[in-house]
Amino acid sequence: MKNLFLLLLISTQLAISQADQITFNHVALGVSDLESSTSFYTEILGIQRIGDPTNNETIRWFALGEGKELHLVATPAEFVRPPRQTHFAISSANFDIFVRKLRQKDVPFVDWEGKPNSVYLRPDGVRQIYLQDPDGYWIEVNSFTKE
User: Fold this and answer.
1) pLDDT above 60 (res 8)
2) What pLDDT was estimated at residue 6?
3) How many domains does the chain have?
4) Is 78 helix (H, G, I), strand (E, B) or coil?
5) Which domain, by its residues, includes 54?
6) Do 111 and 73 have their domain in common?
7) Do 62 and 102 fall into the same domain?
8) CB atoms within 10 A of CB 86
9) Is 49 helix (H, G, I), strand (E, B) or coil?
10) Which Gene3D superfamilies match (predicted)?
11) Shared domain check, 100 and 129
């Protein structure tokens, strides 16, 4: 009986701890021009577009790796006003090549301090830049490796 009680207690604790596990799934951004934003995320950032299981013509889905996704949702322009403080970050395994591609395509970016076309070296050794998508959403791009 004592063993049965102990087993019940352990299985209950395991079920509770599993129920509390939270993981990031996706981020959705409202965009005023779905096609322009789709081009930016695929051609400039190199993010892969994936199928939309909802078959909704006003949403585009993208893979961010490890099962995480970005969803772009067609939204009236008056509702798309992203503040600078709102941003998401992605990492590039080939940071120097990524920055070179931005420069070749004349895509403006800034460092942490706002200096145009500059790369910021964080105190922890990670390099980073910030750029904006067609609707003005800020995107931080940083290096996988530390200097």
Assistant:
1) no
2) 45
3) 2
4) helix
5) 23-81
6) no
7) no
8) 11
9) strand
10) 2,3-Dihydroxybiphenyl 1,2-Dioxygenase, domain 1
11) yes
Asked if 138 and 114 sit in the same domain, the reply is: yes
User: Could you tell me if 62 and 30 lie in one domain?
Assistant: yes
Q: Strand 87-92: give its sheet, edge to edge.
A: 87-92, 138-146, 126-132, 120-121
The residues, ordered by sequence, that sit 6+ positions from 40 with a Cβ below 8 Å of its Cβ are: 133, 134
The residue written with tokens 């970050």 in the block is 89
- pTM here is 0.77
Is 140 in contact with 87 (CB distance < 8 Å)? Answer: yes
- The C-alpha atoms of residue 89 and residue 142 are separated, in whole angstroms, by 7
Q: Are 125 and 142 in contact, with CB atoms under 8 Å apart?
A: no
Task: Looking at the structure, tell me whether residues 77 and 91 fall in a common domain.
Answer: no
**Confidence tier at 21 by pLDDT (50, 70, 90):** confident
Contact (CB, 8 A) for 69 and 26: yes
Verify that 89 and 44 share a domain, yes or no: no
Taking a C-beta distance cutoff of 8 angstroms, is the pair 72, 88 a contact? no
